[in-house]
Recover the amino acids of this structure.
């Protein structure tokens, strides 16, 4: 089974928990994800099944979009609602325009410090493991890009904190938790990420996603409709339908001339309309060499 399945991840599960659940539902062992979500987060979690796990390398730089709530008034050690409060709670009756002005500073190419409770490695050890042991976590800032960061509502709470609704579109490697924390620092009142929902990952959106309950309640025949059509994958790479002779060469790992006229570095090679056989790299002109072979026979 070579498929891509988009799950609407529920809160309270790790991405690996979701994979284990889907393994049981589909009866397939070879399943991976294209980008993890924190346990408290929900939304688009693309899963790759079978040989399609080899597609992960093409999604390392995929943009992602989110929506959620930032609570202003105090920071936490994890930069989200799961962590311990850092410092004193403060009154954060910020007007919407103040928050928007501060938020505008985080749009564009920025240097961002990852959260101490993150998977970033320090001498081979994930930072969160050191943080849990209350050991020093020394991370370096990373360059990321925030394409959009829009604050569209702000509401004061009875506990003197403010809840700020936002949407964001960011480059790969961007921590929304860090943006929430840094926004609170910029406003002088502290802040953390209250809720987060991923609305898109590359070409995948919530309209493609299915809940675990829907998946588990469907028949095997019904689940076939849940898998993404292969022609929708990697829309930035052109597709070509190869003939039997070309396919035989590709599946043996040999270069082949393909009828592809664009200047793209890669091409998706199909047998018919639905079966993607390989991703090939241009050697010269119309000569392509298979980079990854996804199907045999």
């Amino acid at each position: 089974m070579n498929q891509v399945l988009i799950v609407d991840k529920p809160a309270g599960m790790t991405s690996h928990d979701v994979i284990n659940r889907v393994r049981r539902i589909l009866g397939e062992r070879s399943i991976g994800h294209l980008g993890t979500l924190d346990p408290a987060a929900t939304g688009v979690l693309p899963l790759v099944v079978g040989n399609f796990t080899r597609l992960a390398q093409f999604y390392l730089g995929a943009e992602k979009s989110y929506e959620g709530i930032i609570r202003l008034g105090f920071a936490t050690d994890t930069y989200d609602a799961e962590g311990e409060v850092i410092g004193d709670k403060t009154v954060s009756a910020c007007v919407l325009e103040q928050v928007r002005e501060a938020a505008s500073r985080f749009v564009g190419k920025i240097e961002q410090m990852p959260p101490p409770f993150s998977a970033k490695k320090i001498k081979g050890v994930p930072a969160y493991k050191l943080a849990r042991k209350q050991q020093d976590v020394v991370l370096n800032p990373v360059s990321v890009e925030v394409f959009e960061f829009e604050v569209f509502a702000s509401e004061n709470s009875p506990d003197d904190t403010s809840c700020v609704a936002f949407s964001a579109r960011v480059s790969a490697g961007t921590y929304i938790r860090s943006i929430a924390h840094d926004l609170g620092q910029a406003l002088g009142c502290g802040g953390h990420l209250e809720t987060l929902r991923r609305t898109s990952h590359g070409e995948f959106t919530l309209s493609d996603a299915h809940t675990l309950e829907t998946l588990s309640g469907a028949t095997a025949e019904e689940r076939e409709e849940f898998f993404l059509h292969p022609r929708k994958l990697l829309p930035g790479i052109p597709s070509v339908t190869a003939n039997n002779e070309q396919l035989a060469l590709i599946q043996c790992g040999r270069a082949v001339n393909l009828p592809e006229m664009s200047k793209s570095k890669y091409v998706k090679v199909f047998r018919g309309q639905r079966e993607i056989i390989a991703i090939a790299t241009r050697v010269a002109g119309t000569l392509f060499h298979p980079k990854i072979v996804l199907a045999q026979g």
Summary: The mean pLDDT is 89. The two ends are 14 Å apart (CA to CA). The domain at 232-293 is CATH 2.30.130.10 (Archaeosine Trna-guanine Transglycosylase; Chain: A, domain 4).
